[in-house]
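Shipment paperwork, digital attachment
Item: protein structure file
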Amino acid sequence: MMLQLFVDMIERVGFLIALAFAFSRSRWMRSIMSYQGTRTYQWRFLFFFTAYAILATYSGVTVSEYTYRPAPWIGEVAPTAAIANARTVGVVIAGLLGGVKSGLIVGIAAGLHRYSLGGFVAVACMIAPILQGILAGLCRNALKKRFRKVASIQLAFLVGFMAEALQMVLILALAKPWGDAVDLVSLIGLPQTLANSIGVALYFVLYNTMEREEERIGAEHAHKALQIADMTMPLWRLEFDKAVREIAKVLNKEMKAVGAFFSKNGSAWIAEGRKTKHWIDLFIYIPNHPSIGQFRLYFEREQDDNPSRRRMLTSLAGLLSQQYAFVESERQAQLLADAEIRSLQAQMNPHFLFNVLNTVKSFIRTKPEEARQMVMHLSKFLRKNMSHNNQRMITIRDEYELVMSYLSLIKSRLGDQMDFFAEIDESLLDHQIPPFTIQPLVENAIVHGIKNKKGIGVIRLTVKEELDDGKLHARITVEDNGVGLETEKLNSHGEHAGMALRNIEQRLNYHYGREHPLEIESKPGEGTKIRFWVR
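Attachment content:
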């Protein structure tokens, strides 16, 4: 009779394991069985194994008067009867995968359900799942690393055996009359303990198989992400619009999509293909910088949403973002180098030096103190430029000192033909800005603004806090009352501002994310005002 009971128990355990295997093929069940860390998955995990344990109770066999009667479904249990079932399998698995908390919750739910069915061992069978869940959770914490290896199958069998043995002990300790409890344990003890221990071990065979399959798929996805990244790296060095079009084509082909778009600031450019109702987004971003944009890939049908694929897409988006950041960093370094070269060229311009030195020469006899001051300012000006070498950001204070050194040299030559006024909030002097931003604006105001003006030229530098998108940020303004610029030339910053202003604008765009960071207002004959924000 014991052998026949064991065979019946194995059949029921096999049915439950086959059910778990069938569910494991679905994309959402993989996440639940793998016990992913999000709260949604935790609740699904608890619900699934609670239902699993309750189903195991219903699918058991009724044991009464020293024998048992197989039945397809158990509705209630007579006062003198009990159930041989596989409830322990669900409770133990929940504890081994989810820990003490999960094992306890599933155990309480399964225990209360078993108590509601009645029978003379109802109390013992209510307490047993609770203790089994705690036991499995404690074993999971103690043997956590080993449960990630093949040895987890043997360990799972051992934990299942101990949990089932604990239930038999509770039946003997709590069930009345004691003689009936002894007869019950003598009949179901060994078959149920072995069958349920095998059931727990079989589940971990399934679990390990699923883990190995996930690892294989994950390795394939990682290889695909690296392959795509290898193809896209050189493309980022193209002009931005062309780069994203070419990269979208690569993504469209390698990801087997039917359409690929890149969107930026709400506008989209189609690179290839068409739109469907199924898509995925790859966001391109730089830390501490507004989103650069996103690639959207369209597919003919809905794609599998499993942990491995999500990790691959996240990694691919991260790789593309890092590539963009790296190439843009190289570009910014080159822009900074270009700015330094142009600044040094301006400093070492023969006409510039000739004018300064000629002025010094003329002052040596008539104004020796002013000559000495000019030499000091020239030295300070050159030293400040050299100190900014290889610096991505400097303080407004440092840039202002560079401006003052430059103006001291220019004003010595222009004399009363130029006035300079500065209105600076001292609390903003330690704000960081890219080097060579304010000084070239002042230089442009002199060379292209007041140099050709009749009368006194005035340059104003303002640094103060203003509201931008509801937040206070520093705003820097360089204004002159020079000859101004014609309206049609304002349509292209590069045409009227020259290489220096294009360089400044590109670097400000990189650091602060504005499409056109330089705000330029100009009226012919009245002057020019150039402003930008510092965040």
